[in-house]
Specification:
It is built from 3 helices and 25 strands. The chain is mostly beta strands and 376 residues long. It has 2 domains: 233 residues, YVTN repeat-like/Quinoprotein amine dehydrogenase (Methylamine Dehydrogenase, Chain H, 7 Propeller), CATH 2.130.10.10; 134 residues, no CATH class. It has a 4-stranded antiparallel β-sheet, with no helix packed on it.
C-alpha cells in the first residue's frame, strides 16, 4: 500500500513504467508524483504548469482556475509524460513533460473542455497519442508535430463527454467510453481534419442523467457524421469517469471490450457481433457491494481472471477455471475458444460456488461450464 501525499480531492490517474520500477500518479493540481516501487518511497514531484519542482501550499484555494491533471501516461522509455488537463480559460491543455530535464516540453490547447483521458496509440512508439474530452471528441496527436493546436485527426460520433480512451495498441483500433452511455470502436486510419457540428447533450453526470429520448434523438442526428465502426450499449456511465479496455492478446486475441458501470456490473462486449456477451455482477441485495459503482476493471494479461474496483472500497476478483481449456487452447493455436452467448467466458453467478476472502476479493469456481471448441 502506498500512502500518497499532496492529494487534492482524489488521485485522478496513475501509470507504471515498462520495467515496473516506478509509477506516477496525478491529482487535481499541477503536480504529478513519482514513486519508486523497488525502494518503496517517493522519488520526485513535478510541476507541469512551469516545470519547477516547488511547493505551493496556497494553490488548493484556487485549484479550479489553475492547471489540473485529469489523466496521464508514461512513455515506453520512462522519460516523458503526457497529461490531459482540465479546462482553463480558452480550453483544456495537453502537457508533454520531460522527466529527465524536469521541464514542460510542449503545451497545447487540445480541447474546448476537460480532457478526461489520454492514451498512447502504441506505447512502444510513444510519439502518437489519443485524447478524449468532455467536448465529446476524440483526437489523435503526434508529439513530433505539435503546433498550432491542430491534431492529426478528429473522431466524431459521441454526443456527450468522453470518460475514457483505450488503444488496442495495434496501430489501428481504439475504443472510447462516453457519458452518452456507449462505447465506440474506432479505426485510427478513418479520422478527419475538418470541423463538424454535432449537437451535444450537456449535464452534470455526477448528479443527473440524460433523458433516454434526448440521447436517442442526439445519436440519430449524429449518424451522418459518426465515424465509429461499432457502438456498444448496455452499461451505465454516471457519477465518475468509468474506464473501458480491450481484453488481452493472450487467450482472447483482444476480441472483447469490457467496462465498469454505475450499476455495479462489469460488462463484456464482443467486437465481432457487437453483443453484450456477459455481465459480472454480485447477487443483488445479498452483499453490501452489489450495487456499488465499478469505475475500473482489469483483465489479467495471461490468465482468465479479472479484477474490478468498488466505490465501497472493495476489490473483487473473478476467475474462470476449467482445466480442459489448456488442451483446447493448444488445438486452437494459442487462442481460447470463442464463448457462445449462452455459454460466455464469464458465466453469471447463478449457482456458482462464490467465496469472498478477508480482503473482499472474490473467486468464482465452476467445473461445469461448456465452451465451444472452435472459432467461428
Amino acid at each position: 500500500m502506498i500512502t500518497c501525499f499532496n492529494i487534492n480531492w482524489t488521485i485522478t490517474d496513475s501509470d507504471i513504467s515498462s520495467d515496473n520500477s516506478f509509477m506516477i500518479h496525478s491529482t487535481l493540481s499541477p503536480y504529478i508524483h513519482m514513486f519508486n516501487v523497488q525502494q518503496a518511497k517517493y522519488s520526485g514531484q513535478f510541476n507541469l504548469s512551469n516545470g519547477n519542482d516547488d511547493n505551493d501550499d496556497n494553490f488548493a484555494g484556487s485549484w479550479y482556475y489553475r492547471l489540473r491533471v485529469y489523466s496521464l501516461k508514461l512513455s515506453q522509455s520512462g522519460t516523458e509524460v503526457i497529461a490531459g488537463c482540465g479546462k482553463m480559460g480558452r480550453g483544456a491543455p495537453v502537457q508533454v513533460y520531460d522527466l529527465e530535464n524536469t521541464r514542460v516540453k510542449e503545451s497545447i490547447t487540445a480541447h474546448s473542455d476537460d480532457i478526461n483521458s489520454v492514451c498512447y496509440v502504441d506505447k512502444k512508439n510513444s510519439s502518437i497519442f489519443i485524447t478524449g474530452s468532455d467536448d465529446g471528441l476524440c483526437k489523435i496527436w503526434d508529439t513530433r508535430i505539435l503546433k498550432d493546436n491542430e491534431p492529426v485527426g478528429i473522431f466524431y460520433g459521441h454526443v456527450a463527454g468522453i470518460t475514457c480512451v483505450s488503444s488496442k495498441e495495434d496501430n489501428r483500433y481504439f475504443i472510447s467510453n462516453s457519458k452518452d452511455q456507449s462505447i465506440k470502436l474506432w479505426d485510427i486510419r478513418k479520422s478527419c481534419n475538418e470541423k463538424k457540428k454535432i449537437d451535444m447533450c450537456h449535464t452534470d453526470y455526477r448528479y443527473d442523467t440524460i433523458n433516454r429520448t434526448t440521447l436517442e434523438n442526439a445519436a440519430r442526428s449524429a449518424r451522418g457524421v459518426d465515424q465509429s465502426l461499432m457502438t456498444f450499449q448496455g452499461h451505465q456511465v454516471h457519477t465518475t469517469l468509468i474506464r473501458c479496455h480491450f481484453s488481452p492478446l493472450y487467450g482472447t486475441d483482444q476480441r472483447y471490450v469490457y467496462t465498469g458501470s454505475y450499476d455495479g456490473i462489469v460488462y463484456i462486449y464482443d467486437t465481432v457481433t457487437g453483443e453484450n456477451i456477459m455481465k459480472l455482477e454480485l447477487p443483488k441485495g445479498d452483499n453490501y457491494y452489489s450495487d456499488s459503482v465499478v469505475r475500473d476493471c482489469a483483465w489479467h494479461p495471461y490468465s482468465q481472471s479479472l479484477i474490478s474496483t468498488s466505490f465501497h472500497g472493495a476489490i473483487h476478483k473473478w476467475e474462470y477455471m476449467d482445466f480442459r481449456d489448456a488442451e483446447r487452447m493448444e488445438r486452437n493455436n494459442g487462442i481460447f475458444p470463442v464463448i457462445q452467448q449462452q455459454q460466455p467466458l464469464y458465466s453469471p453467478l447463478g449457482d456458482r460456488n462464490l467465496s469472498v476472502s478477508s480482503d473482499d476479493s472474490m473467486d468464482i469456481i465452476d467445473d461445469d461450464d461448456q465452451i465451444s471448441s472452435d472459432l467461428p
